Each structure stands twice: as C-alpha cells, then as structure tokens.
Amino acid sequence: MSEKYKLSLTWPPYLKKKKKKKKKKNKKKNKNKKNKNKKNKNKNKTKKKNKKTKKKKKKKKKKKKTKKKKKKKKKKKEMKKREKKKKDKQKNRRKK
C-alpha cells in the first residue's frame, strides 16, 4: 500500500469518524428497508390467501367509525360541562 493511501484512510481524523457514522446509518437504513420489503411480501402472500376475509375487514372499519362517534359525543359532553361551569361562575359573580 502506498503512503498516500494509508494517510487517506486515517487523515483527517474527524472525517474518519463521520464516515463511520454514515456507514452505520446506511446499514441501519438498509436493514429497515429489507425488513419492510419482507413484511410487504408476506402481506401480499396473505392477501392472496385470504380473499374471503375481506368482508371481516370491512366490519372492523365500521367499528372504528363508532369509536369516532363516541369520542365526538364525549367531547360534546365535556364542552357542555365547561359551558355550564362558566355560566355558574358568571351567576355567582352577579350574586356577589
């Protein structure tokens, strides 16, 4: 190995660290990408198998909607409570 090449590997020191970090980051990214692809592949396989279960999935979606409605109802109730509190406070102020 030439002297120049050896130097390029070790100099400047701060760059060397950066390179290492970048390598590590890329490694992680690639790993994540691989896993994602794997998951998607498996998903597609199961999709092909479970064409019958599509109806069940639709039912689940409906449940989610009701959850939203419940949340809305809860929010409305809380708002009403708050309004009532405000009114009561005002009333009390007037009484004083």
Automatic annotation (TrEMBL):
The lineage of its organism: Eukaryota, Metazoa, Spiralia, Lophotrochozoa, Mollusca. One of its GO terms (cellular component) is nucleosome. Residues 1-96 are annotated as: Disordered. This is Uncharacterized protein. It comes from Dreissena polymorpha (Zebra mussel). GO terms for molecular function: DNA binding; structural constituent of chromatin. One of its GO terms (biological process) is nucleosome assembly. Residues 15-96 have a biased composition (Basic residues).
